[in-house]
Amino acid sequence: MNELTSLGFQGSAHTEHFIILLKIFTAASLVLVTLGIIDRSLSYKDGLPLVNRRFALEPRLFSRFRWALRSKQILNDAHAKYWDRPYRLSRGDTDMIVFPNHYISQLNALPLSSRRYHSRSMIGHLNGLDAVNATNYHVKIMLSRLTPALPALLVPIRGRIQSTMMKVFPQSTKEWTELEPINKVVQCMSEAVTFVTFGPPMLPTFLQPLLVWLLPYKWRLEKSWKTLEEFVVPEAEYRKQDPENRCNNPDLISWMITDAKNDYERDPVVLTRLIGAVIAGGTYSTSVFIMGVISNLVEHPHYFQEIRDEIREMQEKVRGNWDFAAFNALDKLDSAMKETSRLAPGSLLVYSREVQEDCALSSGLHLHKGQMITTSGYSRAMDPGMFPDPLKFDALRAYDKDLDRHRAQPFRSVNEAEDYRWGAGRWACPGRFVASIVAKTILVKLLDEYEFKFVQGKRPPTHVLHEFVFMSPQSRILMRRREKNSGIVY
Ligand code: HEM
User: Which residues of this UniProt protein bind heme (predicted)?
Assistant: First the structure.
């Protein structure tokens, strides 16, 4: 009896357990089915493969972490899988359609905005860079006024760079000095950028270090904007009162005041924001790039020597007159610059745009207003079909491959058949002419006059965070002035 009771008892306990399990199973199935339905309803309907999100309901934070830490791998895998097809990349902050490069000519005809993209992705509403949403005036002036004036501006730019270099780089030919080269180059670069922006005597030198810190990760934003405004606003008001006499100088502010078509374009606060965007976009990127060229050449001393010889020969050929043509005829240095930006572009993604109106591609793919699109410049730069042995730094790659073509399409050009170092289309980097000539001006002297060594033999690392590729301004290098150099004087 006892046994039966106990069996009966156990039997009802089993039944109870079974019912509980059944309930749990039913509830779990219902949750899964519901999640599946929600997941499907949240998924995109355009059939594009989704990269870096495992299912539509996966918290975006996971995509963001993966993208922050493994962006190169994610792009490599996606390129290997979908190389000829667009795919949707989940970055965590937004989902972008990544187009293969051959779509660019078709995309160029669509209503896309690069500035809206830059403003949105750089949280322009928080840092004040959203002024670029309303106008492309700064880009227009850079291309139509600044670029043609560069040959004439070269002489004062050269002089300023030279005197800054004498101040910030070591002069001893005996001792090695350990320093933070990026911060030093930033000072030279900002001399050039502030000169083309404000003209000669306008900007007090004590403000220049502040402008330098209008850099993405060092922004003391509101304070920096305020400092810049405190200078630019009264200066712009002053020049506006008598443009004929006060806007004669070839500089960005004067051109922006004289060429303005409406009150918005000549508003001093707007001018401050636009100028801030130009300075922030150009100073740090070019300085890191210059350090990248030097690091690559230190790592490959035979190229360093060849390029140094090229500089020495040019110095003799032009008898010390380093004009535009002389800098632009340094074919080997130009080739090393192309190779440096191919291996370490500022961003793995280029040609990033926001769609302005609903539109469709010839393939039938619909793009909706507000959608972000981009291309993977990195996948192109690493394509062994375009660049054999793509991970190798071959300083003379472009020079050796086809010299005529290299000369016709130098570093400063937007060459859509090569990599996308300046982006592409109408909104490719408008600062490329400034970046190229200023970088060459600094590099010619540094490569000719200095020896470099890595600290403890280790190259300063290049980091990749999200799509951004950068070197820390705190990276250090050893430098010593060469006793025997070509004696270049700007
Ligand atoms: C080596 C240095 C530099 C590199 C690698 C670089 C690269 C780029 C790239 C890839 C873009 C995006 C283009 C696109 O989406 O199609 C861009 C945009 C831009 N760059 Fe540069 N840049 C450099 C230097 C400069 C300098 C020196 C300036 C200013 C003097 C500058 C000003 C700008 C501006 C204003 C834009 C935004 C254009 C727009 O979309 O409205 N950049 N740059």
Answer: 429
Q: What is the pTM of this model?
A: 0.88
Q: What is the secondary structure of 93-134 as a DSSP string?
A: S-EEEEEPGGGHHHHTTS-EEHHHHHHHHTTHHHHSGGGGGT
397: tokens are: 């790659």
Closest ligand 1 atom to Cα of 353: 15
DSSP letters for 303-337: HHHHHHHHHHHHHHHTTT---HHHHHT-HHHHHHH
Q: Say whether 429 counts as a known binding-site residue.
A: yes
Q: Which domains, and CATH codes, for the chain?
A: 48-134+347-376 (no CATH), 137-345+383-481 (1.10.630.10)
How far apart, in whole angstroms, are the C-alpha atoms of residue 300 and residue 471? 19
Residues in the chain where the model's pLDDT stays below 70: 1-13, 29-43, 122-129, 131, 201-223, 416
289 Cβ below 6 A of ligand 1: yes
pLDDT number for residue 266: 86
Q: Is 170 helix (H, G, I), strand (E, B) or coil?
A: coil
Phi, psi of 325 (to 5 degrees): -65, -40
Out of 429, 434, 440, 462, mutate this one to test ligand 1's pocket (max ligand atoms within 8 Å of CB): namely 429
Atom of ligand 1 nearest to the CA of 439: 1
Structure tokens at 134: 């309303």
